[in-house]
Amino acid sequence: MDEEGPECGKPDFVLLDQVTMEDFMENLKLRFEKGRIYTYIGEVLVSVNPYQELPLYGPEAIAKYQGRELYERPPHLYAVANAAYRAMKRRSRDTCIVISGESGAGKTEASKHIMQYIAAVTNPSQRAEVDRVKDVLLKSTCVLEAFGNARTNRNHNSSRFGKYMDINFDFKGDPIGGHIHSYLLEKSRVLKQHVGERNFHAFYQVLRGCEDAELRNLHLQRNPAVYNFTRQGAGLNVSGGALESDERSHYLAVMEAMRVIGFRAEEVRSVHRILAAVLHLGNIEFLETEEAGLEQGHLEVAEEQLVDHVAELTATPRELVLRCLLSRTVASGGRELIEKRHTAAEASYARDACAKAVYQRLFEWVVSRINSVMETRDRDPRRDGKDTVIGVLDIYGFEVFPVNSFEQLCINYCNEKLQQLFIRLILKQEQEEYQREGITWQTVDYFNNATIVELVERPHRGVLAVLDEACSAAGTITDRIFLQSLDTHHRHHPHYTSRQLCPTDKTMEFGRDFRIKHYAGDVTYSVEGFIDKNRDHLFQDFKRLMYNSSDPTLRAMWPDGQQDITEVTKRPLTAGTLFKNSMVALVENLASKEPFYVRCIKPNEDKVASRLDEDHCRHQVAYLGLLENVRVRRAGFASRQPYPRFLLRYKMTCEYTWPNHLLGSDKAAVSALLEQHGLQGDVAFGHTKLFIRSPQTLVTLEQSRARLIPIIVLLLQKARQRCRRLRAVYTIMRWFRRHKVRAHLAELQRRFQAARQPPLYGRDLIWPPPPAVLQPFQDTCQALFCRWRARQLVKNIPPSDMAQIKAKVAAMTVLQELRQDWGCRRAWVRDYLSSATDNPTASGLFAERLKALREKDSFGAVLFSSHVRKVNRFNKSRDRALLLTDRHVYKLDPGRQYRVMRATPLEAVTGLSVTSGRDQLVVLHARGQDDLVVCLHRCRPPLDNRVGELVGVLAAHCQGKGRALEVRVSDCIPLSQRGARRLVSVEPKPEQPEPDFRCSRGAFTLLWPSG
Ligand SMILES: Nc1ncnc2c1ncn2[C@@H]1O[C@H](COP(=O)(O)OP(=O)(O)O)[C@@H](O)[C@H]1O
Ligand SMILES: [Mg+2]
């Protein structure tokens, strides 16, 4: 199971230096000697029967192949099963695994390993229904082998029927059901076996395995030699072990398997009774006695007790059984029935036909019973998704016996059909792949067996058709006449011959044998019994007898027994035609699926371990077409790999691709890699795959990879250590960070618990410095906190104060940090001229004037009023008063009862200019007017700070009206009066008693009493 070294030979025959039989055999032999029984040809698996238990199977091995690509592990059946399973699961394709090879080559064993693999890798969710299906799938083999397998000279456990098993999967890839098709059971084996062979296992198992009491109930004796049908194989056992115990343990295993599958106890008892009945039937013999007066002799059964047994075991009336054995009912036109007595020969023939038919129906019933358990139930594709199928075909291999009969013809025809399919699919697939990948393809010669298939199955002329014709002809047609007919039809066929056509060939007997050159070798068939076997005739009396049995299990096997004898039924299809039809259907079914092939080879004829008979194998290699397979596979290209897979395997051999490439595509990277190795001439680039012409290229790449792997392993080990350390560091960092964040948040919470306390609402709380990761979070929090705090504060302000707050906010917006003192901490009175404290002497006069103005201009509110010192464009300074209402700016004369000197509409005011100092200079700019230059003051100035108030009140008012007020802060204010531009600035002067203006050289100076 370990990786393979070069001493084990080439794991893929495609890698051979030359494709010759010698090289092929040498590799096969070398691998076989090293216990490597599996080798690929591309995706086809060649398997050699080891005839010994090898440590290749079981759960551990299965795990190694699960989810791997075909080439990643040494060749194995599991890899093929896995490939089929993955194709099914990934691409929702139906797939099939076709296992072929001659009898004893290991086909059935292979199919069992495939099933085990599939059972092991499915149902990870442990659904009971899936487990049940898997149990039945695995156990069904054991039951089918008991009834359908027998010891032959080629294989001690030879399948005497063909088996095709479908396993249905749901969209998750779990098996949810299955179906078994069985093909052509070799029922003649019930009657007779070659020397060294046995009847079907089931008979011996019942005889050797049943308890004494049950055996007595079946009227059986333990010794198989007592019964005609089992006498031949009585001294032989299945595998060469101790006789009885072996058979008994098999018997118990089958009983257990039947129980697990779901056979009911009474069904199993019926099965045993039917087997016993067949054995008794086999011992019935007929005596013909002369009786006077009768032209025909009188026929009777030699041992009547046997009839009793058969009647009892089949639960049918004794007289009827006897009548069926000795005579038959014939419908002679109309509704008249005649009972016609058998001759001794006819009776024996009828008895044998009966025994065969009973056994065959039993076998078919077992298969259908298993199917009924495995059937997928209640599936609705719209609800459950599409089901997919993996089919496993384990069908009888090519057979040549000393005497070959109708069954061998069928079996070998089946193998021809499968070979056809193999050729078709392998070639077709190959061709399609080249086309898909855009690569030119060249054809390879190989032997096409289509003509042999034609020889057998062709309508009207083929062997089966000629046989059918013989069977349906009126009069007595003998096998010999059939042979003559064959000779006439196929005289010139290159694959057909007979003694008649080739009189010198003494290996064939005259009038009895014909020979077909099959793709796998020549087989001489004896025509004796062909017609009978093909007709497969069973008297209706007998069918009716079985149908009328009171054993429901037996009765269920004979539904056709209910037909009335007088019903003129159509001639039933012959055995050959039925078989041909089933083969055509099978091949069609397989062709619709994605195929995987297992080609089994039998190493020697003696079933011994560790011996590979070269001649024997060479023959199989030849007829299986394995060399052609290799050639087709290599036609042009020995190997192909999708670009990503190729890179994965070889990227370490090139600096551009290790550890990861930076090229535009995987294809480009592969190209760079190959160029570095100088191998670009030996490959072709498909759309998705790289095609490699000669195996040597692969070998070169493999070698260079092998050189680098130990270094990479070392590197990886080191990197892994470093990676671990780094990972530890990161973990610590992560935890530390988490701790810091938590600690910070806890601290915030602690500090801000007091934030709800009025009146400060957390104004003095200090935000702790956050960890870097929390900085944005904290910024947001701080902003949120400010808003929250503002809201708390604003909430507590009485509505009467709101106007003042708004004005102060407006003032702050324009003056904050630009002007030293804007009177923020003081209550803003606004209308100073009306205030008795501020204007004790003249507030009364002003009130009168205000009244008059209100009547005249009907303003709403006084925004601001104050005494000012004013300078005009003639450089004259005067005391005046300023009044701002919501409609006008008035200049008043305080000396003359506040008479209005000028009124300007408030909308005309565009801005204000103030200085950054403590002085009370204000310049009012208005559209279409001279700028008004004033210094606000009370009558006694030193604590005056009303500039901010004027700015704030006006700004808030404008804001409310939705227009902008331009406020400029400058220590040298430009102004314009009647078109002349002048400047005004402030000069602090300690000795100045009251603020006043001075004019010199076209500029104003406000002399401000400082200190
Ligand atoms: N992989 C294997 N490992 C061990 N023994 C095997 C293996 N394959 C086949 N055999 C042996 O060969 C015998 C015949 O194999 P079987 O599968 O019945 O052949 P086929 O079905 O091709 O006629 C088996 O009974 C078994 O003893
Ligand atoms: Mg088999």
Automatic annotation (TrEMBL):
GO terms for molecular function: actin filament binding; ATP binding; calmodulin binding; microfilament motor activity. It is found in: Cell projection. Keywords: Actin-binding, ATP-binding, Calmodulin-binding, Cell projection, Motor protein, Myosin, Nucleotide-binding. ATP binds at G101, E102, S103, G104, A105, G106, K107, T108. PROSITE patterns: MYOSIN_MOTOR (PS51456), TH1 (PS51757). GO terms for cellular component: cytoplasm; microvillus; myosin complex; nucleoplasm; plasma membrane. Residues 817-1010 form the TH1 domain. GO terms for biological process: actin filament organization; actin filament-based movement; endocytosis. Its main location: other. SUPFAM superfamilies: P-loop containing nucleoside triphosphate hydrolases. Residues 583-605 are annotated as: Actin-binding. InterPro entries: Kinesin_motor_dom_sf (IPR036961), Myosin_head_motor_dom-like (IPR001609), Myosin_TH1 (IPR010926), MYSc_Myo1 (IPR036072), P-loop_NTPase (IPR027417). Pfam families: Myosin_head (PF00063), Myosin_TH1 (PF06017). Residues 8-706 form the Myosin motor domain. Belongs to the TRAFAC class myosin-kinesin ATPase superfamily. Myosin family. PANTHER family: MYOSIN (PTHR13140), UNCONVENTIONAL MYOSIN-IG (PTHR13140:SF381). This is Myosin IG. It comes from Neovison vison. The gene is MYO1G.
